[in-house]
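Researcher: Sequence of FAD-dependent monooxygenase follows. Predict its structure.
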Amino acid sequence: MRTAVVVGGGLGGLAVSGALARSGWQVTLLERADRIRPEPTAVVLWPNGVRALRALDLGAGLDAIATPLADGGVRRPDGHWLVQPRPAPAERLPVVVHREDLHDALIAGLGDRVELRTGVTVRTVRASQGERPAVGDGRHTYEADLVVAADGVDSVIRRQLAPEAAVVSSGCAAWRAVIPWYRAPSLPDSVGGEILGAGYRFGAASLGERGSSGASSRGGIYWMATAAGAPRPEPPQTQLALLRRWYAGWPAPVEDLLAATDPVDLVQQEIRELRPLPKAYGFPVGPGGVVLLGDAAHAMPPHLGQGACLAFEDAATLAALLRESTLPDAVVAYDRVRRPRAAAVVRQTRRMSAVLQTRGRLALRARDAALGTITPRLLGSAATVAAQWRPPSR
Ligand SMILES: Cc1cc2nc3c(=O)[nH]c(=O)nc-3n(C[C@H](O)[C@H](O)[C@H](O)COP(=O)(O)OP(=O)(O)OC[C@H]3O[C@@H](n4cnc5c(N)ncnc54)[C@H](O)[C@@H]3O)c2cc1C
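Model: Prediction complete. Tokens:
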């Protein structure tokens, strides 16, 4: 039986572990935390991410927990429409899912061929020719035919195999929260849409329906805000007060949502990315290999909501290639297929970052123009890039 060690039990690591196990691999999943713990927030999955999960045979589970994201268009803080809401075919619409529900669905998909070991912090990778690939935590060596590095933006495996890829700040911080329905302000049935301002951005989405007894007990309204600058060192209560100041006067329902947010709901995060991207995602080693997957391979700012979608694409692609070819060929093909794809999405995301984060008076005028003219084009082409992906055929 072929064996794999997957490092990291985030969305990417869980997805690929289950996919390999369902294809008959014996998988050891190593996670440094004492248990697999999702964030209490949500994630938007674009059609490519949904397609990837379906290719991983997780479609039925996803349908039970996903809410279609209402197209609320894109506005400026003064209410001016940058992109009007317009009806789109269902297959082009994203869905929004609570991360805890998504983790549960991925864990349910692990089956009994995945040995989950928590509290294991991988520190080294062995990738010398003539030996099987392996990782170590200083006490044990975990050897396998395939090592999947799904250990996130700070991946120790990537630092050793692709040291050219540096982790840098994206120049902004993000805040997210899910307001449970019982505390959510009364708003139209479904909430959606984004507001883009000078260095600030706010988006919201309904998770399930108010009062519905749907599959998830974690329904409510999810919102995410990003602001140029560093994360705030103050306690959540003060951060929330700052957010209320920054977003004062923004179109409804921004102020209502911030007012209904409890400080304990608030999740703040510094946004970081890889610049440059690694020169390789696949490293043939001895009879097998090592691959980079998810944020370990292509961490990017969340402006187009593509990080998790790409991690699922990675997992679906790797699983399909491993079904079709020998392990060394699959490692080489994974590298060949995934690098241009990730580079294309990262390129679009960086254009969006540039528009959102322009500073200086002259630059501000350019940014306002850009928000008005470039943003609709950028979002349109980003949606196209997202929609374009198809899983490799079985
Ligand atoms: C504010 C924000 C909003 C976002 N919104 C969206 C969205 O709407 N749609 C979307 O598609 N994407 C979104 N993303 C991106 C998405 O969250 C990430 O791309 C995705 O979660 C990456 O998953 P991952 O499994 O690759 O990495 P991670 O989630 O970082 O998981 C890595 C795992 O590896 C473990 N680990 C790390 N180092 C070691 C080690 N040495 N040994 C053992 N274990 C280790 C960690 O503990 C962790 O569990 C967003 C990101 C942010 C920051």
